Amino acid sequence: MPLSPHLSVYKPQLTSILSILHRASGVLLALGTLLVTAWLLSAMAGEQSYNTLHSLFRLGFTQLVLFGWSWATLYHLCNGIRHLIWDLGIGLEIKTVYWSGTSVVIFSALLNLLLWRFS
Amino acid sequence: MTATGHWKVQRLTAVLLIPLTLWLLFSVAKLSSASYPVVQAWITTPLTAIFLTLFVMIAGHHAFLGLQVILEDYTHGALRKRAILFSRMVLATATLLSLYAIFSITTQDL
C-alpha cells in the first residue's frame, strides 16, 4: 500500500509548505465550485433571490472570505502552471524550485490585488 | 480510469482551466456591482454561455480528479471507496445544477 507523506515528521520548508498549500487550496476550490453553483442558481431563480445572495456576498465578512478564496484560486492556478512546467522536465533544480515558489506566492498576491481593483 | 489516463486528463483540464478561470474571475469581479438585468444579459451572451458551460464541466471534473488523489492518500479500506464516491456525487450534482441554471437563464426569453 502506498504511504501518505508523513507530515508530522517532516521539517517544514518552503517547498513542502507550498505543496501542501496546493492541495489545501484545491480542496477549498472544489468546495468553492458549490458557491459558483449557488450563484448561477440564484440568477436563474430571479432578481429577488439574486439580490439576496448578492447582498450576502457584499457583507464585510463574506468579502474577506471571497478575497481569500480568489487568492486561493490564483495561487492554485499559478502554482499549477509551475507543476505543468515541471512535468515538461523544466525548472527542477533546487535553486529554481525555491525561486519559482517565491514568485508564485508574490505573483498570485499581486494578481489578486489587481482582480479586486476591478470590483 | 488508468493511472496514466488520470494523470493526462488532470493536466489537460488544468491547461484548459487557466484561461477559463482568469476569464471568469475578472468577469465576475467586473459584474460585482452590476444589477440583475446586466448579469442576466451577460450570462445570456452566447460566448459567455459557452465559456461558462465549459468552465463548470471542466472545473468539476478537475476538482473530482484532484480530490480523488487526496482521498486515496489519506483514507483507507472501505472508507476510501465511499469517500471517493461521495465526492464524485456531490460534484456531479453541483455540475448538473450549474448546467441547468445556465441553460434556463439563456433560454428564459426564447
Describe the structure.
The complex is a heterodimer of chains A (119) and B (110). Chain A is mainly α. Chain A has a domain at 14-31 and 60-118: Up-down Bundle (3 helical TM bundles of succinate and fumarate reductases). Chain A has helices at residues 14-45, 47-57, 60-87, 94-118. In chain A, helix 1 runs antiparallel to helix 2, helix 1 crosses helix 3 (60-87) and helix 3 (60-87) runs antiparallel to helix 4 (94-118). The longest helix of chain A is centred in the N-terminal third of the chain and has 32 residues, at 14-45. In chain B, helix 1 packs across helix 3 and helix 3 runs antiparallel to helix 4. The longest helix of chain B is centred in the last third of the chain and has 31 residues, at 77-107. The chains are: A mainly alpha (119), B mainly alpha (110).
CATH architecture of chain B: Up-down Bundle
Number of strands of chain A: 0
Q: What's the Cα radius of gyration of chain A?
A: 18 Å
Helix segment tally of chain A:
4
Of all chain pairs, the largest interface belongs to: A-B, 34 and 42 residues
> How is the quaternary structure best described?
heterodimer
Give the count of structural domains of chain B: 1
Q: Bin the helical content of chain B.
A: over 70%
CATH T-level fold name of the domain at 14-31 and 60-118 in chain A: 3 helical TM bundles of succinate and fumarate reductases
Listing every helix as H and every strand as E from the N terminus to the C terminus, the arrangement of chain A reads HHHH
Kindly report how far apart the N and C termini of chain A lie: 48 Å
Question: What is the level 1 CATH name of the domain at 14-31 and 60-118 in chain A?
Answer: Mainly Alpha
The major β-sheet of chain B equals: none
CATH-defined fold name of chain B: 3 helical TM bundles of succinate and fumarate reductases
Q: Uncertain runs of chain B with pLDDT below 50, 5 residues or more?
A: none
- Cα separation of the termini of chain B: 40 Å
SS content category of chain A: mainly alpha
